[in-house]
Amino acid sequence: SSSMAPPPARVFAELVAAQAQALTPTPTLAPVPAERTSGREVHVSGSAELSAGPDRARVSLRIGSRKEAAAAARSSVSRRLEYIAQSARHRGVLEENMTVTEDFSRAENTYQMEAEVSIIFSDFEKMQNICNLLVEKLGTSVAISPPHFYHTPEAVDTLRRQVCVAAVGNTRRKAQEVCRLFGQSLGKPLLIREEETKEWGGHVDSHLSSSSESLTLQERIQNATAYASCRVFAVFEIKGKENRRNKLL
């Protein structure tokens, strides 16, 4: 997966004294138990945005033969099927990632045999190498579809966790900067709340692709890139005067 550097977070922060809270409560903040804080707090909101490229690609290879004899049609397709499967296996593709479907029919006085091999790749460079080899060796006797890129559910879950953690990290750093501005030291977190998450772009696992046939490989990957943003609200305790040694760092 790939990620973009988080943009600067928009921050809302306020230093709140314990006595002032009773007079001017913050509507968005849940009630704070008296035992959880020694007095002063800093309230901060921050956000992050990350992206992740697709982690899977599906390629379909189609071959066919039409002969007067049924056995000849089957044999022609079977030889190419075996070559495709061997080429993929020798380059590390697992059997579980290859699916073969066959269709046999009769048209007038001939027999037609058609087959499709669907291969799922997690290594896109390996995918290109295999497809280039098959085009070189089989020529026009094999039709290779443009790759369909997508995300597995695990990749989407990882992106969601990463953007949330990044937003919390941004929020904590902003809280530290606010405290340093007033010569204070940031304490422990008292509250961390995920307020808003958004996701857009990306492709789910699907056998059909709506992408244009004319797109380049990089354009297909970019179109399948997923994005997520997260905004969090946090309350930190203010410990007191900042350590003099830390101020020099």
UniProtKB/TrEMBL annotation:
Q: Does the keyword Nucleus apply?
A: yes
Provide the protein's localization.
Cytoplasm; Nucleus
Q: Which UniProt keywords apply?
A: Cytoplasm, Nucleus
| Cleavable signal peptide | none
Gene3D superfamilies, per the entry: Protein of unknown function (DUF541), domain 1
Q: Which InterPro entries match?
A: IRAK1BP1, SIMPL/DUF541
Residue ranges, annotated region (Disordered): 26-53
Please give a single GO biological process term from the UniProt record.
Answer: positive regulation of canonical NF-kappaB signal transduction
Q: Name one GO cellular component term.
A: nucleus
One Pfam family from the record:
SIMPL
- Tell me its family: Belongs to the IRAK1BP1 family.
Q: What is this protein called?
A: IKBP1 protein
Look up and give the organism this protein is from.
Answer: Ceyx cyanopectus
